[in-house]
Amino acid sequence: MIIVESIEAIKEICKVPNDGRVIVPTMGALHEGHIALLNKAKEFDNVFATLFINPLQFNNLDDFDAYPQTIEKDIDVFDQNGVDVLFMPSKQDALNQEQIKTINAGPAGDIWEGSFRPGHFDGVLTIVNRFFELIRPSKAVFGLKDIQQICLIHSKLSSVHNVEIIPVETQRNPSGLAYSSRNSLITEDGKQKASIIFKALKAGKEYWKESSNLSGVKQKVSEVLSTEPDFKLQYIEAKPLSDLAESENDFSDLFREADLNHQVIMIAGHVEGIRLIDNIIINSNKY
Ligand code: AMP
Question: In this structure, which residue's CA is closest to atom 11 in ligand 1?
Fold first, then answer.
């Protein structure tokens, strides 16, 4: 594995556009979810990963400061999981004011998760756009754990850069808790309590199958979550994915089932003061 830190060096390596490169952007503190993305990327040639804790996407300085960092360990994990080139620029280089173009997520970045994290998706899109410009991949792998993120990247960046966005299902621990870098900030007891999130999502999905009633789904999810007093709910959304779409067929290649009849249930809340998010897609056999 080659480790590249400078902008000039990554440009030199990637000077041929769309030359079979696949990119897996991460903020490090790697876990099973990231490894699933790397495994997917390995199906293609030339795996590029990025490790960059992007300050633009944190709307809270304390959250940025507390974000877990395990760089040495991460380098080994990237190396052992088929990464050919690891790009890990400095903050100064990656966010160089003269070179970086700010991307606005538009209205779909202001709803759901965006309404609780103003500017978050602009920050995500800005850095992913920068990595697409520099690395010029033909494919990019993202997790469905961040459903709104992958939809926005698909809408705003995939056709501009001619990059195919490849989704990977959310990876979970045996009790159903979605792997997240932030889980390392929670005790084992807290993680056990946080598994209520997936129980609630599954109950919501079951309720949907019986009723096709989104407000009933929200009520059901809320009931299940309320059985765990140490889970501090921030929001539950149960909405059609088409709310995020820019056009009728926006996600047809992303979700492959050619229509926007998917609904999504999203939950955000805190355990031991750490913010967790999760979601489940309903009305879809595939996910
Ligand atoms: P992050 O390092 O948190 O920015 O995440 C990097 C990538 O990993 C994003 O595409 C996330 O959606 C994805 N990801 C994070 N957690 C999981 C998970 N539990 N399962 C699948 N993908 C994940």
Answer: 143
Task: Please answer whether residues 27 and 144 qualify as being in contact, where contact means their C-beta atoms are separated by less than 8 angstroms.
Answer: no
Order of strands, sheet of 232-240, starting from the edge strand that comes earlier in the sequence: 232-240, 263-271, 274-282
Greatest extent of the chain over all pairs of C-alpha atoms, in Å: 56
- How far is Cα of residue 99 from the mean position of the Cα atoms in its chain? 25
**Nearest C-alpha to atom 18 of ligand 1 is from which residue?**
33
Write the DSSP symbol of residue 97: T
**Per-residue model confidence (pLDDT) at position 59:** 86
The stretch 151-172 carries a mean pLDDT of: 96
Q: Which residue, chain included where needed, has tokens 């109950």?
A: 203
Q: Is 50 in the pocket of ligand 1 (CB under 6 A)?
A: no
Are 122 and 109 in contact by the 8 Å Cβ rule? The answer is yes
Q: Tell me: the pLDDT tens digits for 227-250?
A: 999 999 999 999 998 898 887 777
Task: Look at ligand 1, atom 14, and give the residue with the nearest C-alpha.
Answer: 143
Instruction: Read off the tokens for 198.
Output: 């997936």
Q: What is the pTM of this model?
A: 0.96
CB atoms within 10 A of CB 10: 21
Rounded Cα–Cα distance for residues 146 and 156 (Å): 16
> Which residues pair with residue 192 across a beta bridge?
none
Ligand 1 centre from 210 Cα, in Å? Answer: 31
d(CA 67, CA 59): 13
Share of the chain above pLDDT 90, in %: 84
Question: In this predicted structure, what is the pLDDT of residue 284?
Answer: 58
The verdict on the CB of residue 183 being under 6 Å from ligand 1 is no
Q: Is 34 a catalytic residue?
A: yes
Mutate to test the pocket of ligand 1, among 23, 32, 142, 153 (most ligand atoms within 8 A of CB): 142
